[in-house]
Amino acid sequence: MVSKLLKGALAAAMLSVAPVAAIAQDTAAEVAALGGDAKAGKKVYRKCKACHVIDKDKNRVGPHQVGIIGRPAAAIEGFKYSDAMIAKGEEGLVWNVETLSAYLANPKGYIEGTKMAFAGLKKEDDIANVITYMAEEGGIFEATN
Q: What is the CATH number of domain 4-138?
């Protein structure tokens, strides 16, 4: 089931004319261009496992990350996001290579008021690797009606 927020964020992200399949394809190409190492990213992702899961639609302290790449922010129905994250979702923030890179480097600096307690990843290679792993393990977001 797709939330109203998700539908609104998708509409904003797609700028009304780009088909979802094209967005997913572009997002997959961005991930591939990173040149990250999914095996190394799996090791980095251990830091995320205390609060997130990537392989099933189950929320923990943080929302699940299945299909996080290409997904609008604050889109998991029923998860209690911070007001700041909800606002970013309403503004049309979509998790892609650029936005995830910035967020993972400094979550509280990128979204002031986020509930995420993690301080961030400092190494660019770790960020590229974990995004590559997240795309491989969690897949690319696909909107459904």
A: 1.10.760.10
